[in-house]
Amino acid sequence: MTRRAFHSWYSFDSWFLLLFLLPPAAAADRPNVVVILTDDQGWGDLSRNGNANLRTPHTDSLAKDGASVERFFVQPVCSPTRAEFLTGRWHPRGGVRGVSTGAERLNLDEKTVADAFRAAGYATGCFGKWHNGSQYPYHPAGRGFAEYYGFTSGHWGDYFAPPLDHNGKATTGTGFLADDLTDRAIAFLTANAAAGKPSFCYLALNTPHSPMQVPDQYWQRFEKAELKLRGEKTEDLGHTRAALAMCENLDDNIGRLLAALKEKQLDRNTVVVYFHDNGPNGPRWNGGMKGRKGSTDEGGVRSPLFVRWPGQIKPGTVVTPVAAAVDLYPTLVELAGVKRAGDKPFDGVSLVPWLRGEDKPAPDRVLVQHWNGKTSGRSQGFRLDAAGQLFDMTADPNQTKNVSADHPAEVKRLTEAVAAWKTDVLGGLPKADDRPFPVGYAEFARTVLPARDGVPHGGVKRSANAPNCSFFTHWTKPDDSMTWGIEVATAGKYEAIIHYTCPKADVGAAVELAVGGAKWAGTVSEAHDPPLRGQEHDRVPRQGESYVKEFRPLSLGVVEVPAGKGTLTLKAGKIPGGQAADVRAVELVLKR
After folding, report:
1. CA angle 39, 264, 119 (to 5 degrees)
2. What's the CA gap between 18 and 357, in Å, rounded?
3. Which pLDDT tens digit goes with each residue over 517-553?
4. How many other C-beta atoms are found inside a 10 Å radius of the C-beta of residue 171?
5. Edge-to-edge, what's the strand order for the sheet holding 123-129?
6. d(CA 115, CA 135)
7. Are 335 and 269 in contact (CB under 8 A)?
8. Half-sphere exposure of residue 493, counting CA atoms within 13 Å on the CB side?
9. pLDDT bracket for residue 231 (50, 70, 90)
10. Which residues touch 219 (CB under 8 Å, ≥6 apart)?
11. Crossing angle, helix 78-87 and helix 328-336, to 10 degrees?
């Protein structure tokens, strides 16, 4: 482990004492739990699953040394899968209906698996991509995690020394993000072991999600390599090369984590879980399955699931019943002997009997994948796709032949199951997502309202089509504005800060920020015009993500703000130049 993992977290001297001078603490009665979730990695992006283009020995070892759930399913995109892991419940129940602009948020009345482990005395930490809400109490700090380091949106604009969130405060990452996140997770596990406390560690690695960035040594392995391609004209060879390089980097990081557990004598008392959040983010090799990220077909929703616990789960165990992300919460609390949090019923079931090798029949159930108005149902042997076609997934795992005419009873059963799911899960949902963004909790005085959560008006535009890592630009007229629907939890004095850039020629805009009767004002009196960055690290041109730049804070002062709901509006009364400013975020800080 490198010393750079500890900078800006705790003092190096303290960490040195904990990690190197003290003997490893005795293992706690309860196991540590490490959940590794990768982003946009397909089922076929592992050498174990037949991909001859890359090597993933460390990840593959989790299946060899533990259990593999052979038919494990997630949702077609990121935030729904993450919500289902966290709650054990279908994602629409928790309000998750999108991947940005607030639609990715997990309702506050949902209790998470981290809530359960924290209540049981575990140290809880999340490292990486969160994607289920940014403002407290949607933030990981409000969802059971005592330690958080990463980014809360759906994707990020640069993976080298990026701006990050550490327990609600802005910080800067060290080196390549996936390496940095792994360093933090290792440090977290090691420190808690030295203190004699069990850990629940959620390592939400951010790759191979675009932008396609990876350190040189990985890119060089694939830049000119001969690859076995999927054979489709739509396959982008550069994108595939970068994705495979990022997957090998992931594997090396998983290897570092497993080595650290073994070095600190923690491996035999640690449950390690590994899965993906959706199918591959491109038409690369995926075992011939139909569909990729965004699709409810098999290739868009099938993920590996490996669970290793030496001495408790027999090496090489193969679990054949179909399973899903909603099964992880009930499985983990049973493995660890932890009481679940909250009283809302699980949609998932515990996989513990099969992980332990018990000869228990597969449950007769239909797993549902739902996204963007399309719904698919998967039983043990069949898939009913979003168009109502039936496929025999044992005889035809690539979904090439509609067998509806041959199995009318199965069509009827799955059609009724999907219809019942829609009635139960979707039937009571509001048509519009009008949840405000929360501001002003005493536990979390700083609230950042990024451009991705705002609405542009007039000529204002986002810096890219994908909102997640965007900023507002083209703010050129007094009639232009940006708004955020907010709810102030605590009445009091609030400092307002805008994070802006502005070239020298455009200095002088008079900006106004208001919500209800509260108004702030200030002038963009200082030029700050840094270049865009991120493209220098891209291995292939990006498709939807914004480039990033360094934004400067501008305080608009402190005013009294009442509690309650309102629309926060940013405008400019005077724009003497060609534009007022580019805006990354508005920040409201409750002054104590």
Report:
1. 65
2. 38
3. 999 999 999 999 999 999 999 999 998 899 999 999 9
4. 14
5. 169-172, 163-166, 147-151, 123-129, 199-208, 32-39, 270-276, 305-308, 67-69, 317-319
6. 18
7. no
8. 6
9. low
10. 241, 242, 245, 539
11. 40
Torsion over CA: 353, 357, 360, 364 (sign): positive
Q: 31-201+208-303: which CATH topology?
A: Alkaline Phosphatase, subunit A (3.40.720)
> What Å distances lie between residue 402 and 258, 348, 377, 385, CA to CA?
43, 29, 14, 10
3 state SS of 331: helix
Chain mean pLDDT for the chain:
94
For residue 396, what are the CA distances in angstroms to 7, 73, 230, 305, 401? 52, 17, 18, 22, 7
Q: Which amino acid is at 365?
A: R
Q: Which helix (H) or strand (E) holds 86?
A: helix 78-87
User: Helix (H) and strand (E) counts for the chain?
Assistant: 11, 29
Host H or E run for residue 411 = helix 408-421
pLDDT digits (tens, 9 = 90+) for 355-393: 999 999 999 999 999 999 999 999 999 999 999 999 999
Q: How far apart are CA 309 and CA 273, in angstroms?
A: 9
The per-residue pLDDT for 15 is 34
Q: Could you give the count of Cα atoms lying within 13 Å of 510 in the half-sphere of its Cβ?
A: 4
The four Cα atoms 297, 87, 470, 135 give a dihedral, to 10 degrees, of: 170
Question: Using alpha carbons only, what angle is made at residue 123 by residues 120 and 127, rounded to the nearest 5 degrees?
Answer: 130
State the pTM of this model: 0.94
Query: Would you tell me which CATH number, out of the four given (2.60.120.260, 3.40.190.10, 2.40.50.100, 3.10.310.70), belongs to the domain 437-590?
Result: 2.60.120.260
CATH 3.40.720.10 maps onto the chain at: 31-201+208-303
Judge whether 37 and 204 are in contact, CB under 8 Å: yes
Angle CA(297)–CA(303)–CA(308) in degrees, nearest 5?
160
- Amino acid of residue 573: G
CA distance 34 to 328: 12
pLDDT, tens digit, 9 for 90 and up, residues 277-301: 999 999 999 999 999 999 999 999 9
Say which residue the tokens 């629940």 belong to: 200
CB neighbour list of residue 156: distance below 8 Å, 6 or more residues apart: 129, 162, 177, 206, 468, 469, 545
Q: CA-based angle 83:546:128, to the nearest 5?
A: 35
User: How is 134-151 classified by DSSP, letter by letter?
Assistant: SSTTSSGGGTT-SEEEEE
Whether pLDDT at 585 is above 70 = yes
Percent above pLDDT 70 for the chain: 95
pLDDT, tens digit, 9 for 90 and up, residues 111-156: 999 999 999 999 999 999 999 999 999 999 999 999 999 999 999 9
pLDDT at 109: 97
β-bridge partners, 582:
501
Number of residues in the chain? 592
- In CATH, the number for domain 367-426 is 3.30.1120.10
Give, rounded to a whole angstrom, the gap between the first and last alpha carbons of the chain. 39
